[in-house]
């Protein structure tokens, strides 16, 4: 997916197994952020930064939706532990991650493995991607400020 593309209508299932659709967010801007894994330090910092600035994001017309490949149970624990006020999509089959190009080969300490590239897509009120923040750009501890710029 690139800037100018229309986001898909069906985004996936949330932490409670409910289907999430793009049309659920019609008339609002959507922060669709892909992150590697629940309960890790960087992902927790990013989620908590969005949580702490959630009221300001909403005031400026944004809704937040996180996506990772963990299952619903993992997302429920992550939400509960960190008091997250937004939904998390359980992309266990990596369909959304592959569609958005956030799933691929990563490397750490010379070891190669498949994983999620931390990427944020800003989708406008009409469902069109208007901004993409790539892995090297995303600041986990200051992500909300990056979005609000």
How many separate structural domains?
Answer: 1
Q: Spell out the CATH superfamily.
A: Glutaredoxin
Cα distance spanning the termini = 22 Å
Classify the helix fraction into a percent range: 25-40%
H and E order? EEEHHEHEHEEEEH
Proportion of residues in extended strands: 25-35%
> How many β-strand runs?
9
Low-confidence stretches: none
What is the residue-mean pLDDT, rounded to a whole number?
96
Could you characterize what this model shows?
This protein has 149 residues and is of the alpha/beta class. The protein has helices at 41-52, 54-59, 72-82, 95-100, 143-148; strands spanning 10-13, 19-21, 29-34, 62-68, 87-90, 103-108, 111-116, 119-123, 129-133. The protein has a single domain (10-148), classed as Glutaredoxin. The protein contains five helices and nine strands, in the order βββααβαβαββββα. A hairpin with a 2-residue loop joins strand 6 (103-108) and strand 7 (111-116).
Q: What layout of secondary structure does this protein have?
A:
Blueprint: E1 10-13, E2 19-21, E3 29-34, H1 41-52, H2 54-59, E4 62-68, H3 72-82, E5 87-90, H4 95-100, E6 103-108, E7 111-116, E8 119-123, E9 129-133, H5 143-148
Parallel strand pairs: 3-4, 4-5
Antiparallel strand pairs: 1-2, 3-8, 6-7, 8-9
